[in-house]
């Protein structure tokens, strides 16, 4: 296994995460990839340098290191009336977006009052921008924001609830595993069916949390080196594919990759997962610090293919529309995992009604268009399509797995260390 410059063979503790027929492989359309926004759900660790003192969401948060998304306030009015354009990103893709379906903000009660939100992972400021937009729409709505890593906030929330003094009303995390840990410690309130109804059941299995923005595992490949039919449709076949010998890349220290391996361990067991890791090492796979660099190396021709969350290829294409990179998706296995950012309401909150209304806003067509066109995430409601010619969630074939169990990383990290992957 080859390690690239800048690698640190330890876990980075990141919060990142993260089909049949045509749905398994859909080419990224060159004209449909330059959307406003550069960072996406699951690409930021969130860090621990954000506000922990209850400050309000910033009104000029940056879109991140790889571009900007413009003024988050868009053309929202201050009386609660708002249109899709206020939430939509910019670029050729946006100009040809189809009519959207789903719940609308104008059909919901106004947000009013102060809501304490613990935000696990800042998404380069994009989620903060969304909060800014809501506050500008609703002058009587105020967000008291605390940000840190999802794991840190999960532990804090559990401690606060156990002590009888919860300080958060809502936990919004880039990783469903962190939400699951809080829920499994009896620190959340059940979400009403009418709140989670727009979202597929797999993203609210027990109604303790609900997904708001998805990310799919994928195989970016260089079209000058491989054709679509040369990409295996099962992740287990990658160890035996001769065309991929010495020409693939992965990012094992990255949180999204570790969730992928955790899914494999849960689906196939420790021994089969160990053999797969060893098999990929036998393929002389190259290691990179993160999955954007994997995708970029594919586009450069340094690699023929790699393992990465879907949106990194879109980010590459946003910067280089003619880059020879497309996406393939495996079927029904860990390589086809769909994870998500999500939200839950904290047990003991005195603002239950406001918290539920806030979640309803996250699941409107407007909010889902924000996540799709500004963050390149998979929308959680069927009436809003993904960007870039991606297959819809329904067209993909993810494995049946309890996403909350992906938080149990320690056995995975032990396994990766035993095989020398970490």
TrEMBL record:
Region (Disordered): 1-23, 81-106
SUPFAM superfamilies in alphabetical order: Periplasmic binding protein-like II (SSF53850)
Ribonucleoprotein keyword on record: no
Gene3D superfamilies listed in its UniProt record: Periplasmic binding protein-like II (3.40.190.10)
Alphabetic keyword roster: Signal
PROSITE patterns noted in UniProt: TAT (PS51318)
Record carries keyword Metal-binding: no
Record's protein name: Extracellular solute-binding protein family 1
Annotated organism of origin: Halococcus morrhuae DSM 1307
